[in-house]
Amino acid sequence: MKQELVHVIAGNLFAISDAQGDIETDPQAPLGLFAYDTRFLSHWVLRIDGERINALSRDDLTYFETRFFLVPGAASHYVDADVSIIRHRSVHDCFHENITVLNHSSQPAEFTVRVEMASDFTDIVEVGQLRQRAVEVSADSANQQLVLRYQRDRFVRETTVRSTVPAEVDERGMTFQIRIAPDGKWETDLHVSVTMGGEDGRDLRADLQSHQQIVRTGMEEDLVQWLDRAPQLVAERKGLEELYQGSLADLAALRYRPLSYRERVPIGGLPWAMGLCGRDALITCLQTMAFTPELAPATLRMLALMQGGQLDDALDEEPGKILAQLRYGETGAFSDRTSALYYGAADTTPLFVVLLDEYERWSGDADLVRELRHPARMALDWIDEYGDLTGDGYLRYQRRNERDGTINQCWKDSPDAIVDAHGRQPAFPRATCELQGYAYDAKRRGARLAREFWGDPAYADRLEREAAALKERFNRDFWLPHREHYALALDPYGEPVDALASNIGHLLWSGIVADDRAEAVAEHLVGPRLFSGWGVRTFATGQRAYNPVGTHLGAVWPSDNALIAAGLRRYRLDVQAARIADGIFDMAQTLGGATPGVIAGYERDLTTYPVQLTTSCRPQAWSSGAMLMLLGTMLGLRPTGDNLLVNPAVPEGFGRLELLDIPGRWGHSDAYARDRTTERRHRLH
């Protein structure tokens, strides 16, 4: 077992170290200080008198701040050690570390404190395949400063380390010769600033200690305000309030400002998706609408700003298409792999329209709907003009970039995710079932926006006719009557890909499922082949490609399950929705801490503990958002005109729930609910 890794996050900037606070290059894990997809520190190791240090304890103060309590040498030194060390680490737009050395003896003591420092400026996508870069190093003892710099053409990245006390600075780090009085202490603040493109933008040399305190106070205030703006949860179920607060804090951590953009948007998750991912951001905003609605307008404007405007095979770009991801690393800048702007997703474009409509329903912000009229109509046009690749009226995908474009451009985007029950991959272009649900939902919602805000009833009528025709066609072509579920996809010849997968739950969420088929779909979702006990698997057991540790071939995603539960409630299948919500909450509370992006699909009775996958992000925005969406689903929160409708269906064992000060066009409202056991007990008394 590898030792625990420790992280601190402030939006796109984050640091991952070992349990002692040290950073060393590991091809299996992204240890280091990262910002905007580049590693600015790859080596950061503390030694006392030449010895490595070991952890006694750690205090994780907030998502952006932690403290390590340490002693030098091996574990045998822990007892009655004469010296101990505290490393207080925090991040914001920079990286700070306060090192305090304590002398516990009755005599003065002299120590050599050494911090080794280096950077390889690796793009995060290359962490497992390192390549050498020519890094310039400038050591300046007079100013207590070490500068590490990498340049490739106009791509410039620079790391500057400064100390608040005198140090001997060499090209590999800083050394401090210190003398500490009996029962005394010595400390220094190390400040690491990161520069991109040769533009630092800040002068932090003057008073680093006071600056660090000002920034820390500002971030603490920002977190307090973020939590205060969200509704307050009062819950009988033990640990549920803590899980709720933790999910909100994780969402606060996973906000950042893209370059040249003033507002904060949600990023994917630590460590592999610490940037703007269109799908993740859109789903996160939909999940958190009743809790943190301010994420939605910032995300919509940003995605509208980056909307595709031309045909570009390398970027998989098409007019009207919504961004899949935005990256700032070296490989993106030089198109060594996919480009900095990449549009290889077929679901982001309809989801953009879905989010715009849903945000207006909650907020009443008609101005934003009018402001984004053109991007929304371009997105709706894209569904038919570029998304319908075979002319049969279905939204399909096939990558333009044959070199390194994403193969599967749906939410299950791993290369082997779309297969039939026998493990065979269909030809391209592929029409996965949930894409049709998203397109149907986008057309219906676009019709409402056109009629009520854009003054175009003829366009609204057209979209409604197209949506109705799509629903009828879909229920004819995708339904497998002998299995009583929808096909995972259609191949380019209209033949169904007959796998049973969690995608059918997204169909309920979109509303494309015929009413008389919803119950059959629900029984599959909570049946033994798909439901693990913790949640719905991405791929059902009994099929050749099923793999409980396969990311999209049997594992369980909280984000997937949140949409499924919401879809079940849409069709009044409350018992099945409650079962899924109960399993996901059990999983999250059993693991503790941030909700992981994905867990293995083993039967709950087999493992008795949720098994995390190494590929999982934690925290991940749409997993933390899933916890909030499931709460909203249990309470049955739905905007209706200028009012908030509350229609609870709470799983047994949850007791009483109160969600206070829910924001929306109505101002603020409260929601109350009890599970059935609590209701019966209440009536008896």
Explain what the structure shows.
It is built from 17 helices and 31 strands. The longest helix has 22 residues, at 208-229. The chain has two domains: 6-212, Beta-galactosidase, Chain A, domain 5 (Distorted Sandwich); 217-593 and 600-680, Glycosyltransferase (Alpha/alpha barrel), CATH 1.50.10. Strand 8 and strand 9 (95-103) form a beta hairpin. Helix 6 packs across helix 9 (433-452) and helix 13 packs parallel to helix 16. The strands form eight sheets. It has a twelve-stranded antiparallel beta sheet with strand order 11-12-13-16-9-8-7-6-5-10-15-14, covered by helices on one side. Strands 1-2-3-4 form a four-stranded antiparallel beta sheet, with no helix packed on it. The protein has a three-stranded antiparallel beta sheet with strand order 17-30-31. Mean pLDDT is 93; it is low at 198-211. Helices cover 31% and strands 24% of the residues. It is globular, with a radius of gyration of 27 Å. The chain starts with 5 loop residues before the first strand and ends with a helix. With 685 residues, it is α+β, with helices and mostly antiparallel strands.
Topology:
Layout: E1 6-10, E2 13-17, E3 32-35, E4 38-41, E5 43-48, E6 51-62, E7 65-72, E8 83-91, E9 95-103, E10 109-118, E11 136-140, E12 145-152, E13 155-163, E14 168-170, E15 173-180, E16 185-196, H1 208-229, E17 232-235, H2 240-253, E18 255-256, E19 265-266, E20 276-277, H3 278-287, H4 295-305, E21 325-326, H5 330-333, E22 341-342, H6 348-363, H7 366-371, H8 373-385, E23 431-432, H9 433-452, H10 457-477, E24 479-480, E25 485-486, E26 489-490, E27 496-497, H11 503-510, H12 518-525, H13 558-570, H14 574-591, H15 604-607, H16 621-635, E28 638-640, E29 643-645, E30 656-664, E31 667-674, H17 676-684
Antiparallel strand pairs: 1-2, 2-3, 3-4, 5-6, 5-10, 6-7, 7-8, 8-9, 9-16, 10-15, 11-12, 12-13, 13-16, 14-15, 17-30, 18-19, 20-21, 21-22, 23-26, 24-25, 26-27, 28-29, 30-31
Helix pairs in contact: 2-16, 3-4, 3-6, 3-16, 4-6, 6-8, 6-9, 8-9, 9-10, 9-11, 11-13, 13-14, 13-16, 14-16
